[in-house]
Fold these 2 entries.
Entry 1:
Amino acid sequence: MPGEWITDRQYRRYMERKQQGDTQVLAASRAGISERSARRISAAASLPSQCRKARGRTRLDPLADVWDEIVVPMLRQVPMLRATSVMEELDREHPGRLHERHLRTLQRRIATWRASEGPEREVIFRQEHPPGYQSLCDFTEPADFDVTIDGLPFDHLLFHFWLAFSGWQYVKVIEGGESFTALTEGMQEALWQLGGTPATNRTDRLSAAYRNLSPHDDAAAGYQAFCDHYGIEPTRNNAGVSHENGSVEAAHGHLKRSLREGLALRGSRDFADVAAYQAFISEHVARRNARRRGEVALELAQMKPLPSFKTTDFSLATVTVTRTSTIAVRDVLYTVPSRLIGSRLRVHIYDGRLVCYLGNTQVLTLPRRRRNAQGPTHVVDYRHIIGSLVKKPQAFRRSVLRDGMFPREVFRRTWDILDATLEPRRACRVYVGLLHLAATHACEALLADHLEAVLAAGDLPDVEVARAAVAPPPSASPDVSIKQTDLTIYDSLFQHQETPDVQAF
């Protein structure tokens, strides 16, 4: 075709047809070139690509006046400077020297300069991953999908444990931040689910695991003790070099993408509670792990066995139960059963729960909450204090714990209607009576349904009406039939014995 370069393939085809006896016209036609071009390349001693001369510049260089004088010194000073920044600097210091339409030309020229004269670039050295040698763990934010718990947004992280060789993984929902408790609790659960311990564990520069300020031996004491218990060597990536933790970083993307698709197939991103959400993730991850049984078996064969017992994966606090039947842990106020008032409790602080001990006896488990920056955070269970509150119902109105004594939204609406309709003292008695009914008969869900129906009908809730609806007394005393025992059965116990001789002394 006119204006097109003759290719080496066309040249070879033309020469082959000539050697097979075709005329020059026929051979040129079969090669897709003109007869004139065929006569020209017949005399050539080399391939067309070897004879081709580089075409010179056909138009003036728009960078001729600024490249050597201005742009190159700027790039030598700041090698990674972008072309847009160079253009902005030129426009500020030398207006009119370069037009915006020359930006693409400037980008190509800078790329060529970096490749030929720029500074050396960092090289990534890919590593081998022997079976059973390295695990990696990290926290990732599930920004690709929004999950709700009982209709409310759920702010959380995912702890991700990953084996470098087989790709076996463990994922745990983390309600708090990247804490020591979340790290060690997640690692310990992963190791015991796996059934072995790798030689090393790689993290990024987590403050939960490293102090990061000392250049020597700066592993935090708790994390170092945890790794010593399992015989794991802790390692971390260098500061600012995220690709050294790249195996798990890449796995984050695959995990979140598959979770997003799994939620889409599920048809809903709402879960009844955190346990249901964790169960969904665990099932999803288990299916992915099942496809790696062979590789995991190779890993386990090279791993060390688990120790005979687990180690500490929690933080400790010691608190005293106050006269208000509360304890304060990490700036959060929790109610506890009133029978513990005055007791000194040892609290094991996990990521999602508090386990309270009185001496060596576990007496209570509480859901853990984080401090709210907008104000004090209270975690209230009305069952802990209802026994005292029902004796002093007027204390409910001004109690600092009042907002926590609405276990469901319908209870809050019930209080608002009672407070707006009834005399203040009676309103408190009725609402506290309803709470007491829910606590003593363990019928919170039934009572909530009853209150929904009463409010929908435009009626006022009443304690006795509610009691009859959700906890009615037995209609009649049950008939108890007691069978009289036949006393003659005891006759068989008597045995006739001769009276022994009695000797008089």
Entry 2:
Amino acid sequence: MSDMPVRSPRRLIVSAIVAFAAFGAFWGVWGASVPRVREQAGLDDGRLGFALLFVGAGALPAMLLMGRALDRWGPRVAGAAIAALGCAGAAMVLTAVNLAALCAGLAVVGATSGAADVAMNAVAGRAERIAGRPVITRAHGVFSGLVVLASLATGSAASLPVAVPFAAVAVVSLMAGGALFKALDDAGRTREHVPEAAPTGRGRIVPFVLIGTLGALGFAGENAHQSWSAVFAHDELHSGGGLSAVAPAVFAGVVAVTRFAAGGLGAAHARAVLLGGATAAAAGAALIAVAPTLLVAGAGLAVAAAGTAVLFPTLLGIVSRNVEESRRGRATSVVTTVSYLGFLLGPVYVGLWADAVGLRGAMLAIAALAAALLVLTPGCCARAA
């Protein structure tokens, strides 16, 4: 027997992680560039908020379509999706001179991002199954870390034209996409060595929807903290603008560190990781709600970040182990799409609760999402197993 089955998984793992790095770099650059893109397009906050809706509008259908594309044409389309995201970002920032152009550009960015998201997670799941060791959680840790690093790098290069960091990310995305395509081409030659899960059957979409629902609860809390932690620090704890801005960075940093730390945990610990993560997410949000000082709120934010960090990657790992290779794309797209709905709605959920009961009450509402995840996890995971 050749040693290709040993080399190919290693190369596939590295290429998948590089793809996650490119994905994180893109969104780090975008997050730091939003004010400059808004200025370039001549928009106020209201019209910018309208334009940002097009990211989700483009992403959701693309996520569902990518699952079918992966199953029909094979996982190598993942390389094209990663490359397309970087190019779409560069094109968007070069053409975003008014509201209409920005909306069109963000719709394309959303579509390529959604496709890349599903593709990367499917590839990471394939790599984890071939290698027989955890891949997904650490890959998500790389994504989180690159979001932070790229955001800081973009902020430090504010004197350069806004298109420069997007052009750099486009080059990185093209390289990552090419490497992923080549690695998947090699892995495809050893397909007979990939262990198959038990057949899922066409009627087994419900377990994936249930897993996606758990992911949505986790993502809702994660994006709610990312979007509202600075506002909470400023409005409730009366911190200055500089200190308030640290809150989202603390959250993202803890998420990255936790994913790296928990990345080595195997399948046997999946349920315990989910239950522990949900418990930490609920406790952290509750601590933020009653925090008298910024230090206490920061501690609560760190606990919540550590809890939410492990949820979605662990859920994807469960799916990866319980789906046949021929349906991996569709299964991943269902879970990712349903989970993404939580990511989109989480900040809105907090806003509605904040209007009704104030920001401290809204933090308790985030804790309630984590508590619901804690209750639902055993039953949903049993259905997916």
